[in-house]
Amino acid sequence: MAESSNPPSEPSLPSPSTPSPTLPAQTLSITFTHHGTPHTLTFPSSSTLTDLSTSISTDFSIPTSNQKFMITPKLGVIKPPFTSPPLLSTLQSKKIVLLAPTATELSSLSSASSQPSRSTASTIKPAAPARHRDWKKVQEEATYTFHTTLPLDYLPKPERSLKFLERLRDDPGIKASMRKHKFSVGVLTEMNPAEHTTHESKTLGLNRNKGEVIELRLRTDAYDGYRDYKIIRDTLCHELAHNVHGPHDRNFWDLCKDIEKEVRAADWKSGGRAVSEEVFYDPEDREGSVGHVDGGGWTGGEFVLGGSGSSSSSKVPAQTLNRREAMAKAAEERMKKQREAGSGGPA
Known about the structure:
5-stranded mixed β-sheet; 4-stranded mixed β-sheet; proteasome binding; 2 domains; Ubiquitin-like (UB roll); 9 helices; alpha/beta; Ubiquitin-like_domsf
């Protein structure tokens, strides 16, 4: 037989399979504000607040031990380590403010502490034996307090407002009452006199979500001074009562009266007595349900530090503001007359 002229065919090699494209992992962007400047970071969708804290520590040189986050609404002020860190995907619609010193501030503090002056070093005296400290009291005061004091840094001399807020926080009477009632407030801040004000009325204090944020009107309407400390402290007593009771009912006024008495009794700096009997509301009118400081404790809305105030859902009824303003003006007029009488006439 004749051999075939066609050469034997070579076995074909299987073609390599084309690798399937890898789908990119889903990501999300989180924006937070630090010292008034917004920053946006990108994370995998499964990331938590702990991952944000770690990235801030790495990218901004702010240790986690110096970090606090004010997350509104609802969460308030929290700091690492977090017991149950929330998913970042649940925080995208919330306002996140990082309360922490900058890397430059930390560096300057470290440098100053590591280089004491010779005069200071030469005057250091041997440490005296420590007196007995009530550690239970120390722990309670660290728990039942205002965890953050925030002035409005866009108003003149915010450092004065900070000292005013810190004085309220450290007031012996306020501290004693907060320990007794176990009040823990996230943020104590000042109120812009231009906000919560109408032609005929003004709000002197606000308590959001039973202690998430308390705002106080520290400044005069013309921004040229500060209101009387005792009056502001009485306003704070009123707002602390809203941690328990929202409406101005009998229970609210009973608690408010108890807090005021406790604060004055424990104020050893003033001998347990107020310097002035002037207050911003009439104690004889407490039987009613009308508020002279605010419109009652309120929930919801959006608190924006240095912003335009709360949403319409948290506005106080106009008639309540009118009555409050009338009482405030009456108290201010009485104080003015007393000052004029003490100085022999109008200034």
